[in-house]
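Hi Y.,

Following your request, here is the sequence exactly as I used it, all 285 residues.
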Amino acid sequence: MAQLRDIRRRIRSIKKTQQVTKAMKMVAAAKLRRAQEAILNARPYANHLRDVITSIVAFEDLPPHPLLQKPDGNTLTLVVLSGEKGLCGGFNINLFKEVESLRQQFHGNLEILSLGKKGTDHFKRRSYNLIESKSLKGRVEPVALAESISDEIIDRFTKRQTQTVAITYTEFRSALSQKVVTEWVLPLEFEKPEDAKINLDYIFHPDPLTILNSLLPRFVKSQIYRSFLESQASEYGARMTAMDNATRNSEELIDKLTLQYNRARQAAITKELIEVVSGAEALET
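Below is the corresponding structure, written out as tokens. Let me know if you'd prefer a different format.
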């Protein structure tokens, strides 16, 4: 009977865990839908802003802009977008593998600006040059976060404290597919359009340099903003998939334990019947 109680206790415990994983899956699915909508709404603005800047930098007589010029030095500031919590499959692990690969390939001074508790804890334990960390706990406004990070990396770049700025995040493709990517943020690079000689008959007011001074920081901000939305949606997708797998595994384990419980109960009943029959036969003899 002790074995039967242990099996029943395990079944109850797994059912409670299954309720938690099922609830976490539903919450992640709801958040994922909102994150997908935010990504779709942000893309047109970023694409149009890039087109406008590209048409301006195509001018050959344009004065050099600080955000377009790479200063001398060998310092890379890497902005890493990790998760604030776990229970999301390989979301954080794949991100850390990408950062470690960059660390081995880059021979200069690599400094980390970490967004997310999981990344901060990981880099502190492994002696990375962590210059700053920000928590994503609570209700984080993506626009305010993007503005804060973009202002900080632009300030470090223009003051020559760093020569290159990149961002590593998880790109969202679908709920089942996410890919870790690294994009170079500063210095900014724009390809000249093939029909630049035809479409450069513009009259600017104010002058092109003043316009770039306004648009280039906004473009950096839009890159950080889009990356944050991509990372957020990827985390929700990874958590939804992980919790769905955990729920399915719990169901399979409950079925196995139920079968084991029934067999053990049947064996106990059979044993009791044999004992009763044996005792009756002994009394008759």
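Strands lie at 75-81, 109-115, 130-134, 164-174, 177-186.

Thanks again,
Q.
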